Design the sequence.
């Protein structure tokens, strides 16, 4: 499994209120949420993002509310993977639970630029910046988490345990 | 091996004698909660996992975010969780007019108490640590799994010790303490960690102060925040109708990655400037700069909508009038608190001062309704987040503060020092 796309880059503390503002939370329709993704931090995001693109961001990505609408909006908008210095813990869980790949790699975040073409190999944790020909090593998911992802999220994982 | 309070609770709920930081465990849950935003999204997932809750006593849906229903979609969502609650025969049915905001109503009703492991599909679920419970916020999938199966997986957190000494001065309260702490350690200062409060200063804090402090643990990135159980906590739980609970204490040689010393006597009224809760400034710094004129004040929410919060604000507002440039929303967090405000004359004070006195709701805190901000407006709010667009337009500015600062600012028309506006405390 791998991600492959161009990069949209953001700073530190991208919070769930800018990823999907509360005024849109009266719906949990994934496509509707995706149509408002990132609107309060980058109104051009929805036009610019293509299927498979990656978000690269600073520390504490997804801080704030527990709304699972946030990773769902990004995944449905086309984001294949988020690389950040660190993630807020609830966002981290929610992303895994809905099958959105995320990895922590400050070295990659420091050097990858907006618009770069990047690949991420989920099995090895290797991040390749195709544009600059540089590679970075992120921690691959532990087996426990890989199992949740390969079984299609937490729901299937728990159902399959019975 | 020595364990923190959080680690001991998690070990007990995972059926283990011992857990270590970083270890992945599966814990049995004592209470699982969702609201009218996260709950409806969980229902189809619960359906996929058998369609029923694991225990009718231990699953609760609280309508509070977009209620009173602000539009048709919100009405459908509130209806969906009520219908599911009734169909499942849940023991605790929450309906507008009888309950309130989730993190105030669950402790008030005695549904959360010391020694429990609790998850809620709301980030401020960490509030219940004030009673000595492990409680943390999760998303919709986790909450659906918790409701259907009664379990959740956790990575055992390492801990930060917050050692409290001294005693809070007048006009300084729990909100100032937590804004001060977040200002020092940053909005990711406790990322993935538990915040464990200790020290002789604990006994000087009211339960409402502790709820406020734990409530905002998430704003430092914390997995949970927790206080030791003392006589004040025991009295609170008994008054809430709880007869049995389990008290855990951290081992004396438990490991902490960091210790933060806070002398409560030195904490000043503190304001978090836009757009992060960690952007803390003392009231003295605020007074030394140009006046910050405001358009709205909100006094309420799961952070500061409890009775003593409103009482502090009322004491300052008594006999004063809200400035002409300001509108004030006072929002008691539960119906019981609402009634106390009626019975004890607080509503009279608020209304005579020129405040709107509203029904319990999360409304204005996340820009839902009942106090949305226009472009360029400034708001002093006793809520918990001042992110871009949180309470309305992306160009609105939110200043987080205590009920005392909020009340003083309402009178002055700009961010003001409650020590100087007067009132009794």
Sequence:
């Amino acid at each position: 499994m791998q991600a492959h796309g161009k990069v949209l880059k953001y700073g530190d503390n991208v919070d769930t209120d800018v990823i999907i503002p509360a005024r849109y939370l009266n719906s949990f329709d994934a496509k509707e949420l995706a149509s408002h993704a990132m609107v309060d931090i980058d109104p051009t995001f929805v036009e610019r993002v293509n299927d498979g693109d990656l978000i690269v961001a600073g520390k504490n990505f997804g801080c704030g509310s527990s709304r699972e609408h946030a990773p769902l909006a990004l995944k449905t908008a086309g984001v294949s993977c988020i690389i950040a210095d660190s993630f807020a813990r609830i966002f981290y869980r929610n992303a895994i639970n809905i099958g959105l790949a995320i990895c922590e790699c400050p070295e990659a975040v420091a050097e990858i630029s907006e618009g770069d073409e990047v690949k991420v190999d989920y099995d090895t944790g290797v991040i390749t910046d195709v544009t600059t020909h540089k590679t970075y090593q992120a921690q691959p998911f532990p087996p426990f988490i890989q199992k949740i992802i390969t079984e299609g999220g937490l729901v299937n994982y728990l159902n399959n345990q019975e | 091996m020595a364990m923190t309070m959080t680690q001991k609770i998690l070990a007990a709920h995972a059926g283990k004698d011992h857990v270590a930081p970083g270890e992945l465990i599966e814990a049995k849950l004592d209470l699982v909660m969702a609201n009218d935003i996260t709950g409806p999204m969980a229902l189809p997932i619960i359906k996929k996992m058998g369609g029923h809750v694991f225990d009718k006593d231990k699953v609760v849906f609280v309508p509070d975010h977009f209620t009173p229903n602000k539009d048709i979609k919100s009405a459908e969502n509130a209806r969906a969780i009520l219908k599911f609650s009734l169909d499942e025969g849940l023991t605790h049915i929450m309906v507008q007019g009888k309950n309130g905001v989730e993190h105030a109503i669950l402790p008030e009703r005695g549904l959360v108490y010391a020694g429990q492991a609790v998850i809620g599909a709301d980030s401020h679920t960490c509030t219940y640590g004030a009673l000595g419970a492990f409680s943390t916020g999760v998303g919709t999938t986790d909450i659906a799994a918790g409701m259907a199966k009664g379990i959740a997986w956790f990575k055992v957190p390492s801990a930060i010790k917050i050692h409290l000494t001294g005693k809070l001065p007048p006009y300084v309260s729990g909100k100032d303490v937590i804004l001060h702490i977040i200002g020092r350690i940053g909005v990711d200062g406790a990322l993935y960690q538990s915040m464990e409060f200790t020290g002789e200063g604990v006994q000087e804090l009211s339960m409402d102060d502790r709820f406020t402090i734990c409530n905002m643990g998430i704003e430092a990135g914390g997995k949970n925040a927790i206080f030791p159980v003392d006589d004040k906590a025991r009295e609170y739980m008994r008054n809430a109708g709880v007869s049995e609970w389990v008290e855990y204490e951290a081992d004396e040689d438990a490991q902490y990655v960091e210790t933060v010393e806070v002398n409560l006597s030195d904490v000043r009224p503190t304001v978090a400037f836009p757009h992060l809760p960690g952007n803390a400034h003392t009231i003295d710094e605020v007074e030394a700069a140009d006046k910050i004129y405001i358009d709205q004040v909100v006094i309420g929410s799961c952070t500061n909508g409890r009775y003593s919060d409103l009482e502090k604000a009322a004491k300052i507002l008594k006999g004063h009038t809200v400035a002409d440039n300001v509108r004030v929303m006072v929002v008691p967090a539960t119906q019981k608190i609402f009634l106390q405000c009626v019975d004890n004359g607080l509503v009279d004070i608020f209304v005579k001062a020129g405040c709107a006195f509203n029904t319990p709701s999360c409304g204005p805190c996340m820009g839902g309704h009942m106090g949305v901000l226009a472009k360029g407006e400034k708001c002093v709010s006793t809520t918990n987040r001042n992110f871009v667009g949180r309470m309305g337009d992306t160009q609105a500015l939110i200043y987080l503060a205590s009920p005392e600062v909020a009340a003083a600012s309402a009178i002055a028309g700009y961010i003001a020092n409650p020590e100087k506006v007067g009132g009794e405390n």
